[in-house]
């Protein structure tokens, strides 16, 4: 009885360790991924771009316009393996007859192994005849 409990405990301890050794997802074409990593020697492994804009028209009849863009990719011969793109904007038209227009754009590199894109915005038009227009564009592989 004591041996079976001890064997079960040993098995329960060994399984997580074995899972760590062979964990992760199996890749379909491992050689192409390894070739891509090998060709990137000496280059940055990751690329991060943050585009943030705050645009406001607060007086009666005022207008505000904002354009922002980032373009990133590897330099000649260099391509990051991982890309992170953040686009965040706040656009406010808070006065009577005010107008606020905002466009933020980020273009990321193509051909990366992993990409994380995070896009958030707040667009508020408050007041009689006020208008607020917002465009947040987070493109990957352009």
Could you explain the architecture of this structure?
The chain is α/β, with parallel strands linked by helices. The chain has one domain (2-140). 21% of the residues lie in helices and 46% in strands. It has 2 helices and 6 strands. The chain has a 3-stranded parallel sheet, with no helix packed on it. The longest helix has 20 residues, at 2-21. The protein is elongated. The N and C termini lie far apart (65 Å).
Q: Which parts are unreliable, with pLDDT below 50 for 5 consecutive residues or more?
A: 17-24
Q: Mind describing the biggest β-sheet?
A: 3 strands, parallel
Helix content: 10-25%
Gross morphology = elongated
Order of helices and strands: HHEEEEEE
Overall tally of structural domains: 1
Structural class by secondary-structure content: alpha/beta
Cα gyration radius (Å): 25 Å
Rounded to the nearest angstrom, the distance between the terminal CA atoms is: 65 Å
Which percent band covers the strand fraction?
A: over 45%
* Overall pLDDT score: 78
Number of helices: 2
Number of strands: 6
Going across the biggest sheet, name each strand in turn. Answer: 1-3-5
Topology diagram in text:
Elements lengths: L1 H20 L8 H10 L6 E12 L5 E9 L10 E12 L5 E10 L5 E12 L5 E10 L2
Parallel strand pairs: 1-3, 2-4, 3-5, 4-6
What's this model, at a glance?
21% of the residues lie in helices and 46% in strands. The chain is built from 2 helices and 6 strands, in the order H-H-E-E-E-E-E-E.
């Amino acid at each position: 009885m004591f041996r079976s409990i001890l064997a079960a405990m040993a098995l329960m301890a060994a399984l997580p360790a074995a899972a760590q050794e062979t964990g992760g997802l199996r890749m379909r074409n491992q050689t192409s991924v390894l070739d891509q990593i090998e060709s990137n020697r000496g280059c940055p492994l990751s690329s991060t771009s943050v585009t943030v804009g705050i645009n406001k028209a607060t007086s009666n009849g005022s207008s505000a316009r904002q354009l922002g863009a980032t373009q990133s990719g590897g330099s000649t011969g260099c391509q990051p393996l991982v890309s992170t793109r953040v686009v965040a904007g706040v656009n406010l038209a808070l006065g009577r007859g005010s107008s606020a227009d905002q466009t933020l754009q980020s273009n990321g590199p193509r051909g990366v192994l992993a990409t994380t894109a995070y896009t958030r915005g707040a667009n508020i038009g408050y007041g009689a005849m006020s208008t607020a227009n917002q465009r947040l564009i987070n493109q990957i592989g352009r």
